[in-house]
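The freezer alarm interrupted the setup, so I double-checked each line after restarting. Inputs confirmed:
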Amino acid sequence: MHAMLTLAELTSDQELIRKLLFCATLLPLVSSIFTLFLGTKWLKKQTGQFAVSAMAMSFVCALFAAFKFTTGDVEPFTWAIPWIPIPGREAGYLYLGLFCDQLTVALMVMVTLISTLVHIYSIGYMEGDKRYERFFCYLSAFTFSMLGIVTANGLMQLFVFWELVGLTSYLLIGFWFEKKGPQQACKKAFVMNRVGDTGFLIGFGILFAQLGGKVLLPATDGGMFDAIAAELGGKAEIMANPPMWLTIAGIGLFFGAIGKSAQFPLHTWLPDAMEGPTPVSSIVHSATMVAAGVYLTARIFPILTPAAHLFVCIIGLITLVMAACMAVVMTDIKRVLAYSTLSQLGYMILGVGSGAYIFALFHLVTHAFFKCCLFQCSGSVINMAHHQQDMRYYGGLAKKMPLTALAYGICTLTISGIGFGSWSFLSGFYSKDGIILGSYNYAHELGGWGSLFLWGPIIVAYITPFYMARSFALTFLGKPRDQHLYDHVKEAPKTMVGPQLVLALFAIISVPWILPWEHMIEMTQQSLVANGVTWIPGLHELHEAHHGIAAPLLFGLAGLLMIGVGIWMYKDGFGKAEFLLKKVPGLKILHTWALNKFYFDHLYDIFIVKMTKCFAGICSFIDKWGVDGLVNVVGLWTKGLARFTGGFDNKVVDGLVNGAANSARAGGQALRTTQPGRIRVYVSLLFVGLIIALMFALTLVAN
Amino acid sequence: MTMLALFQPGLYHLLAVSIALLTAGVAVILTKRNAVGILMGVELILNAAGLNFVAFNRYVWANAVDGQMFTLFIIVLAAAEAAVALAIFLNFYNNFDTINVDQADELQG
Amino acid sequence: MFTTLAAGTDSESLAQVAPFLYLIFAAITILSAWMIVISQNIVRMAMYLLFTLGGVAGLYFLMSAEFLAAIQLIVYAGGTLILIVFGVMLTSKNPFIRLQTMLWERCVAIGLGLLLAMLMVIALANTPIKQTGTEAVAQNHDIHTLAITMLSKYLVPFEVAAVLLLVVMIGAAYMARRRA
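Predicted 3D structure, all chains:
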């Protein structure tokens, strides 16, 4: 007797988009299953091409859906079918379906495009690997999981794909599981994510306990948490009178995002995930896994209370600053990029927390392009340099790999947010600027110490160009520091350079031309005001003021300046930097501190691993002397009792049994004389028997 | 002529041969120590049985061929039995290096 | 009409030579069978067994079971006996080796055999048996009837025998294989 949910009829456009998104989501899964079962047998070296074509088809579907969505003025819609019946709940069913709004289509396009390019890149990068086919299987499954998160139509469905992302990332990071490093790294990533997922489940559980089966209903047209927010009186009401449990639930759900997006307490897995193949790093750091966390944070925005907002902002700020400092001192090229990713993710989380979530998502998309490109470039370099990842052995590679250097340079400029006044040709400028704008407003709202939320991102906006220029200069400029390595380097194959250039192109052109800047600000402002976020009274005016005075000085030109400084310092290797380290007091300590990743791994080792071990030791002690002692006493008692019963058993019961056995043995002894083991005796007895039977029959007949 | 009429084959003539065959078979089984010899005795007994079936079919119930059918199956089974028996003998010979059945008393009680 | 006539002629001509044939075949069979008992040489025993089987085949001919006689010769004399000869060759280092039993054992064997024969004769004498004529035999005992019966009434045993032969073939080959 479950009341079936009635959903609005879809228009023909919506129906078309639904089908397209459906295909786009399932194509990677199909490709994954195909490569899993047929890869090694049929496809062999064509597996890469097969997976790429499936992904490309998926991309075309997503692109067409996005095109239809933006040009056709289609309303966001939701679609669901009943999946698992739940007796006794008002929802009646768990639903399985698809939710589509601007965010969904934008992310679909971004994810499928980047995944396609990473697949193409992998053909070159993974060539000759002994599990070449299996890699594409995992990669496609990973993409499928992410697309599942993006199109998920409800918390339960999202959680399923959420965990699938965790699993596939585990498989991919540990792809070279014969080596010690990847083994540890994939375990670390998995465990860290489980910690975050525990938070997610707690948040989910609180929501379920407070709101019941409504939590399980499919998303309404406003998004996954819109109905829940409406139930509580809308975002405005939540902001005005926040219930305590909602704060905890929001933070709990956000903990899931902390795990996936590698935010402050759980960030250590992401740099270690470098142990996986570089295509994996490039997709994990851009389109899929870390994006999932930011996506979730943006989705739970409607139910975030002011306290939860503050929490999200603090986490974002800490990650942002900390990771940027670490990125400055790292010498491993992939680690520089990894900490850079952490820092940019901090920007995004801060953006969502401070209310500028549209910019945060915008930054997610732009960052995905340029970070994916940077990783692919670094992968090319590493691949060509015989897996030497340390920048101390690089230098002057621009002459050998001009196209890679070009792509890397463009992305360096983009991530630095270079711009002139309120205009730039690079997408990074707009997205980063939007986030800083949001945090400016938030800092203004909080006042006092809240200005940290403004100065943090601004300082990091200075650090970012510096460390990116550093890595660029160390790798591509100056004189080669390792002549042998330099001699062997050559431009990467086409399948690797091609995707890099395409991504660099997207880093330049993405979004400002697709979605106008002014329009975006308007959207943010409207949605925030409508949602009762009080700290953004007149975003538009602020934006004008901001850009009119501060921005050109602060970011655009400053970025250029810092790039100049970085290149000047590191063009000729580490000489100038080491000079500075010697001369400036205190810098050395800071350097060591940052180089050891702020001792987070040590900290976790001491406080979590050691304490767990200590606790285990105590438990073991109690077990041995307390529990075991008790058991031993009981055991002694039992032993005594057993002695007594044993005596009874031996004398009385066994006597009976033995008597029976003895008589049986005597009987057997007597009978075995008739079994001499001679075939003649047996046959004789057989015929004697026959004769007796015949005689008996004859007497019967005779009588 | 009367002598010949006496030997005009009938049921009892054939049964007499059958009895002789059976007796010979029993004697062979009981007097041979060679496993293959024992197998021959078994074959003799089987032949006696087959002869019986055919004879009864021929002289008592000539409306059907069931007796011949049974003999046919006896021949088939005898062939099968001989094959398996010889396989066993080969095994035995490989393990004990003899074909004397009196030495196959490992399982003696 | 033609068949009955032909059958009639056959049975008539057969009736004239039947006593001779019977005597010959019976003599061969019984003598060879007892020669197996007496003989101590396994190869000779195999030879006598061949004669016995041939004699039995002749008796089948005599009872107008021609198909059976042919099968007896082909399968028994041609197949099983060859198998036995192979067995003899494979299991004897010296095929002429003597494996003799003791005298008292032989006496027991002969005694048991004679006792059995005697009892059989008594049983036969005490059992009234109603015999039928030769006409039904001429009508029914052709190979056509045999085939029809085998593939209708005895179809299931026939199939089971086929399976049995397969099993025996595999089993025998498995058991007799060379072990590592």
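Quick read of the result. Residues 43 and 95 of chain C are 7 Å apart (CA to CA).
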